[in-house]
Amino acid sequence: MSLLTGPEPMPFLTDSDGVVRITGTRVTLDTLIAAFREGATAEAIAEQYPSLALGDVYTAIGYYLRHQAEVESYLEKRRRLADQVRQKNERRFSPVGIRGRLLARRKPQVLLSKHRHQQ
Description:
The chain has 119 residues and is mostly helical. The protein has a single domain, classed as Arc Repressor Mutant, subunit A (Orthogonal Bundle), CATH 1.10.10. 63% of the residues lie in helices and 5% in strands. A two-stranded antiparallel ribbon has the order 1-2. A hairpin with a 5-residue loop joins strand 1 (12-14) and strand 2. Helix 1 (29-37) crosses helix 3 (54-66) and helix 2 crosses helix 3. The longest helix has 25 residues, at 68-92. It is elongated, with a radius of gyration of 22 Å. The chain starts with 11 loop residues before the first strand and ends with a helix. The model has no long low-confidence stretch (mean pLDDT 88).
């Protein structure tokens, strides 16, 4: 028996928005690395995200550990972009008073529902 010693393909796919996902899943590299940084083992990550193959989790973690500077740069870029999107959305849709607005929308529905149940 001889073992193959060639390079294994990385289980990553970059989507049209530039987001790196684990191939064949919707799980992002960001998500996987965040779980790893929080202390989750590869087994725990694979259990938490059943679409991930355990081998792909180990490969992704290994890639991160060998290419930490590049992955950190990518993750920082994603954080900045997420902050920009959040700020843009907060300017368009102010979060101030959101609870009151949502409760006000719900009130007529709750009253209507109670009225129907009483009949």
